């Protein structure tokens, strides 16, 4: 079924649900899992007079290391193999969704698992959605795990079909 699964993690409850689903799928399919944390230093932090954006970058890298450590501990408990990764967006243009796309391509992922908040209307317009942006550019199967998902995916890997959110 799947040989290489990438899961986007950011420390949120939503990404924790996605990690649990990815762990279960990886364990059931005998696949390798790559938890990915993306560091995104907002461009505006570079424009603030007298502010050194390296402090923010360092804090985000530390947060990423903490999130990845938690993912690795979960992988060990589940008996799942894989290599975690921290990636950074490019100030010249790559956003978080494109960073995930590059990581999926680099690792030859055949499935990307992500959490989605399921925002609609004005919230979606104002906040945007990394999951939605990634879904539009994905080059492999994508499994979206909704924020309100309290149950992990079925333990039968064949029954868990990747889905794509409607546009």
From TrEMBL:
UspA domain: which residues?
1-146
User: Which InterPro entries does the UniProt record give?
Assistant: Rossmann-like_a/b/a_fold, Universal_stress_UspA, UspA
Q: Which Pfam families match?
A: Usp
Q: Which Gene3D superfamilies match?
A: HUPs
Protein family according to the UniProt entry: Belongs to the universal stress protein A family.
- What is the protein name for this chain? Universal stress protein
